Amino acid sequence: MADWIGWLFAFDDVFDESIDGCDQDFAIATAAATNTVYTGLPSAPPSPVVRPYVVALEDLWERTTQGMPAYWCRRLANDMVDYVNSYRSHALINASRIALDEQSYRAHRLISSAVFITLDLGEAAARRALSESLLVHPYIRAAREAANNIVSWSNDLYSAPKELSLGDLCNYVAVLQSQGDLTTAQAADRVSQYLHEEIARFDQTKQLIHTHLIPRLPTEDQQGVISMLDTCSNWITGNVAWSLETARYASRAIDMEREKEVFGDLRT
């Protein structure tokens, strides 16, 4: 898991830390070269900048998929394609200087966050792949989506000072500012409000799963769902703890009092 998280952060910086992040040709070529690792589709050789990431991903893919069922490998591959291709959209948005509307941004953020990938990886770490029939259950989908939103939107709050200073429009704070006459603080407050709602939705859905779904499942599936919920909770709390401590976000989009209000009950 640590190797994957390191790769995801490093790959993200290929776009965030250089002018290539707005270069659509670079994004398209990078996506094609990266996606070939798990799709098998041919592509041009990766550029010298991207090649180390492709080589590292080949190793990660081989190690991670060993012993996992084919349907899970397909799901991880699909989630990786969505994630990597989101950088093409990211480049187009920033090059055009036109922010997405709020609902479109929410849909984009679900795949650009890589959270679904990390939830897949949690199944691999536990050696408990969720069946496809369970994955589409409304409660499971709602829990995974809420966890994704909590991680993604809190990340947007912490990274807003850096991303707004770079003119990056793929941030929830920037999206809200583009739609109305809001200051950065007002937009951050609104994202904080949305976070409260998602935290409540996750907690409620988690309770529904424990009360109405898990007791009706075979033992193996029960353990898989419990493991999935643990991964969601750990990813939520771990992301908040890391965001509060890392030097990656030296500036804060929200002050300490607001941090306590929004994230206080997630740290335990």
Describe this protein's structure.
The protein contains twelve helices and no strands. With 268 residues, it is an all-alpha fold. It folds into two domains: 98 residues, no CATH class; 170 residues, Farnesyl Diphosphate Synthase (Orthogonal Bundle). α2 runs parallel beside α3 and α4 runs antiparallel to α6. The longest helix has 30 residues. Its EC number is 4.2.3.-. GO terms for molecular function: metal ion binding; terpene synthase activity. Belongs to the terpene synthase family. This is Terpene synthase.
Keywords:
single chain, 268 residues, mainly alpha, Farnesyl Diphosphate Synthase, 12 helices, 75% helix, disordered C terminus
Please count the helical segments. 12
- Compute the separation of the termini in Å: 21 Å
CATH architecture of the largest domain: Orthogonal Bundle
- According to DSSP, the number of beta strands is 0
Structural class: mainly alpha
**What is the rounded Rg?**
19 Å
Regarding CATH, which class of the largest domain? Mainly Alpha
Topology order in helix (H) and strand (E) letters = HHHHHHHHHHHH
CATH fold-level assignment of the largest domain? Farnesyl Diphosphate Synthase
CATH 4th-level superfamily of the largest domain? Farnesyl Diphosphate Synthase
Largest sheet: none
pLDDT averaged residue by residue? 91
How much β-strand is present in the residues?
under 5%
Low-confidence stretches: 253-260, 262-268
**Helix content class:** over 70%
Number of domains: 2
Backbone shape: globular
